[in-house]
Design a protein that fits this description.
single chain, mainly beta, L,D-transpeptidase catalytic domain-like, four-stranded mixed sheet, 8 strands, globular
Length: about 110
């Protein structure tokens, strides 16, 4: 992930995105962060089952897709071997404190494959 302020890169964290080999790709497109929340549960279900996961930080950018921490993740963020089969349900997992403090509601998000 590249976080930019104008044309200047200000942060480049490793991330885990959607489990593409399981049909849970992170949607591509351009949106804006439309909310910021802390200390909440993310709930849902898909072909892999249901979840009710506590997150410290949540910033949605497209429907139920967004940025959040993932304390339950058992592999390193950015592990290119594991995320296609053990990645998210489409959200972007990363160490969130810096991004949460930097980004504002309305910050543009562009997801590319």
């Amino acid at each position: 992930m590249w976080v930019c302020n104008g044309k200047d890169e200000v942060y480049q964290p490793a991330v885990t995105s959607g489990a593409t080999k399981l049909g849970d790709a992170t949607p591509t497109g351009t949106w804006q962060i439309y909310a910021k929340q802390t200390n909440r549960y993310l709930t849902g279900s898909d072909s892999r089952g249901s979840w009710n996961d506590y997150v410290n930080y949540w910033m949605p950018f497209y429907g139920d897709y967004g940025f959040h921490d993932a304390s339950w993740q058992t592999f390193l963020f950015g592990d290119l071997q594991k995320y296609p089969i053990q990645g998210s349900h489409g959200c972007v997992h990363l160490p969130m404190a810096w991004l949460y403090n930097w980004a504002q509601v309305g910050t543009t998000v562009s997801v590319q494959s």
